[in-house]
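Section 4.2 – Deliverable D4.2 (structural model, holo form)

The reporting period included a commitment to supply a predicted holo structure for the target in complex with flavin-adenine dinucleotide. Inputs used:
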Amino acid sequence: MIGAGLAGLSAAVRLSKAGASVTVHETAKYAGGRCRTFHDQALQSTIDNGTHLLLSGNHEVLDFLHLTGGHSQLVEAERGGLDFLDLASGERWCVDLGTGKGTLSLLKWLFDKSRQPPGLKPLGFLKDVFALKHGRGKTVAACVNTTSELYHKFWQPMTLAVLNAAPQDAAAELIWAVLRETVIKGGAFAKPMYATHGLGTALVDPALKVLAEGGADVHFQRRITALDIEQGRVYCVSFAKAAEVLSVDDAVILAVPHHSVANLVADVKAPTGSRAILNVHYQVRKAVDHPRMTGLVGGQAEWLFQRSNIASVTISGADAWMDKDTDSIAHAVWPEIAKALGEGAEVPAYRVIKERRATFAATPQELHKRPGPQTLCENLYLAGDWTDTGLPATLEGAVKSGRLAAQAVLQSWS
Ligand SMILES: Cc1cc2nc3c(=O)[nH]c(=O)nc-3n(C[C@H](O)[C@H](O)[C@H](O)COP(=O)(O)OP(=O)(O)OC[C@H]3O[C@@H](n4cnc5c(N)ncnc54)[C@H](O)[C@@H]3O)c2cc1C
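Output (structure tokens):
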């Protein structure tokens, strides 16, 4: 296995549980990749690199967590839905699809104003959803009514959150894939879920424990520099100062991010464009007992996640922020957060985390560059949120890609 992000861990856990002898090579000092937890000195707290929203319909992630035991570390949102605040007008609302399953539960929600975003008209919403369902090759903005209030208060923030791209850029078929697995199935599948003690405790540590118990070798700070391929097989894996010759039964799963693939294998296509995500974590005065998320519209900040006394702000599609210095970012964002939380004007201790290549660019054009798990090389397989899972670059997509790659390997051995 090359890469110990969620895709690599998902594949490794499944192969290990199936009795395979697994070796993981990870270039970083830690596992988790773009989904990691660490202790931050400035905040004197354990934080995630970026807030990750999971929904109760993310069945790939939930199945994985049941395999590793990590599910006990997840909690559902206290109020069942997602709270929103319009920073410009001060208006607040909650999008709560309830707890039901199936079309009837969705229809009930469509006619209950108290649980909807402002401006939702049932027929308009259904028209938007229908257009997204049939929007292959189009952007989200080309499918939904961009002049409606619902667009500004629902479609725009949801597209940015789920696809890390503005609706004018984002592929409609990816947002439909998420709607199909969550909202369309009913509120029981659209509940926000949070990791009580951070992503690492829920998603990464239990997986590493399963691998250790299964006898897998997990090596950190071990960067793969080349895959030597001859006669349609990877026969040798090279590191900076060493190389490992593979046996005839060995398979390699390449579970690196989209931008690293071309460095290792020439003839595998992968998305080339990337989009950034910015996270600013503040140490605030008022702590919360239960993790909570608030969607913000009408300002620069898009999502506010609170866990204990840390308020974490997410800005998606954040390429324009990447060259700004951290101090000016923290000062530019804080007034909105102070307003949302009723905190003072003075900027508290903060940590800015810039993820320049947080996801591949989820545009209709880039979707054509997503390969499946199999390659032309008979013992080389691909995993990662950028591979063709039919889903956006999310935890759900990464975990699914790992499952598909592991299945392909096991099938080749059967
Ligand atoms: C700030 C941020 C917020 C996000 N928010 C959400 C969210 O709310 N909900 C959601 O579902 N998803 C979210 N995502 C997306 C999610 O984190 C990713 O889709 C997922 O973590 C990708 O996993 P992966 O295993 O495919 O890739 P990665 O996590 O990138 O893992 C690849 C691994 O390969 C390693 N590697 C690279 N090159 C080599 C090499 N040559 N040799 C050995 N190892 C190598 C890397 O170090 C890394 O550990 C967010 C991402 C970011 C960055």
